[in-house]
Amino acid sequence: MSELDEQISHRRDKRHQLADRGIDPYPIRVDYDLDPSAVGERYGEKTAEELDAAAVALKVPGRVRAIRRHGKAMFLDLADGRGKLQLFVRANQLPAPASAVLEALDLGDLVCAGGTLVRTRTGELSLLVDDLVMLAKALRPLPEKWHGLTDVEARYRQRYLDLLVNPDTRRVFEVRSALVAGIRRFLDAHGFLEVETPMLQAIPGGATARPFVTHHNALDLDLYLRVAPELYLKRLLVGGLDRVYEINRNFRNEGISTRHNPEFTMLEFYWAYSDYRALMDFTEEMLVGLAREVLGETAVSWGGERIDLTPPWPRLTMKGAVAELGGIPCNRLEHVADMAAELERAGRAYPAAVTDELMAHPVLHAGSGSNYDGSVSVPEGWYGHFLVALFEELVEPRLLRPTFILDYPVEVSPLAKQTPADPRFTERFELYLGGMEIANAFSELNDPEDQAARFRQQLAAREGGDEEAHRFDHDYVRALEYGMPPAGGEGIGIDRLTMLFTGRPSIRDVILFPLLRPDAGGDGA
Predict the structure, then answer these.
(1) What is the pTM of this model?
(2) Residue whose C-alpha is closest to residue 22's, from 100, 94, 93
(3) Cis ω on the peptide bond leading into residue 485 (within 30° of 0)?
(4) What is the spatial distance between Cα 463 and Cα 410, in angstroms, rounded to a whole number?
(5) CA nearest to 416, candidates 376, 368, 369, 470
(6) Burial grade of 429 (CB within 10 A; 0-12, 13-18, 19 or more)
(7) Which of 215, 238, 257, 428 is most buried as measured by Cβ atoms within 10 A of its Cβ?
(8) Strand pairing category for 315-317 and 403-406
(9) Of 312, 262, 279, the residue nearest 492 (C-alpha)
């Protein structure tokens, strides 16, 4: 029998001993006055004399995190995750049921202690215990105090233990909660209405991504978990709700990395009579305000560096960023063949969406470089994919300071308005911070005929093998035919924002229960 099995066996014996004495080790409810942390907040400044005079009697529940014996007395630490309270116990002064609980006590047990607040000779605020009730007998021991739960995958799989023994983990999710609450306050104060849209959709839309497929038995209908709420939120703009937002769960059937989880949380908001330039100012105001409110300063720590968030933030077009930060002359960013050669020089594979078709045109392969003479008809849609690939390879990792990248190619932006100056590009920005995308925004396309044409282009891409291309949503086009006001729309990744605000390098660190492969075996405790 392993040491762990022996400990579990001894704890089970104690559970049965309590039951044999008529003590329920898992009672239905408990009446109490304050949590351990609240006791310290309320009475932490009281002197011993003030406590003696007040004779404060309390019932306090919590988890036993330490047991120390001093002669006939015992000292226990009772914790609630935010703080702890010392229990001062004289076993010979307890009633029989409480003495039985004390005898059966182990680290990790949940109890409720009754007694009077005092200060010990060392001056520590303590509860002089006159009653002790078992609330839940812990049958498994907590990880060892000084080493804690250090195995990363075990922390993800057993988040309950991670939260119990690693205070920094609790802090991460407190920051996450504060961010979400702060976002709500900010948008509510600016006249936005929080709404809810379907997670199950007949046509997945609002993003170029592979969806998860499910089936509704009663309707005998295949449905998709939403990849984005965008098209439903913009239907609300048609309906006259001029400022709407949703903090939503999205699902994308794609790879897992330190920055990607198939299930993730996004803020999306839409603002009628606005555009993507107004949203840049709005985003600066919101994120700087969140940093000040949640962190107490307008900076974040990331990868060992302090990143100042003081606006204004740089604004670069994608093409300009590839030229300026990627070191590629602008004249090499006009033709697909030139960009393909630059991509090969950078050691990057061609974009998956065009690889198969590209192979059918040897003249556009390596070595073509600037020798491309226009004699071959370049398939529609290649330009944008190659420019984005160059940007992701050469520029994106360098964008540590908050930077807006503007004017994305139309091929990768089927829901954004084209820029008046160059129809190859759209009025779209992405915000980068810490070398990763944090936000994505458009001047929303509201021309129904243009939108239908974009959908047809996406269908052609799907037929060419691009599984992430957008489907044709006829009802959405019909909604646009009733008239949607010009608008700006934006999505902000809550998970990545939390990563930045807590300095956590992996998205799994900021999702309470990230998706993992099934455990191959082993106890893991």
Answers:
(1) 0.88
(2) 100
(3) no
(4) 18
(5) 470
(6) buried
(7) 428
(8) parallel
(9) 279
Go through the domains of the chain in sequence order and give each one's CATH number.
3-136 (2.40.50.140), 170-325+395-510 (3.30.930.10), 326-382 (no CATH)
* Per-residue burial over 192-203, b = 16 or more CB atoms within 10 Å of its CB, e = otherwise: beeeebeeebee
Which amino acid is located at 338 in the chain?
D
Tokens of 249: 């769960």
What tokens were used for 62? 């919590």
List strands edge to edge, sheet with 487-493: 193-194, 243-251, 263-272, 487-493, 436-443, 428-433, 403-406, 315-317
Give the pLDDT confidence of 267-294 residue by residue, as tens digits.
999 999 999 999 999 999 999 999 999 9
Nearest to 243 by CA among 182, 195, 179: 195
Q: Which two tokens stand for residue 468?
A: 């992430």
Question: Cα-atom radius of gyration of the chain, to the nearest Å?
Answer: 30
Q: Which run of H or E residues covers position 441?
A: strand 436-443
Specify burial of residue 134 (Cβ count, 10 A radius: 0-12, 13-18, 19+): buried
How long a stretch of residues is the chain? Answer: 525
Counting as low any pLDDT under 50, the low residues of the chain are 146, 356, 360, 362-378, 380, 524-525
Longest dimension (CA), the chain: 98
Contact present, 93 and 53 (Cβ < 8 Å):
no
Separation CA 285–CA 291 (nearest Å): 10
- Report which DSSP code applies to 425: B
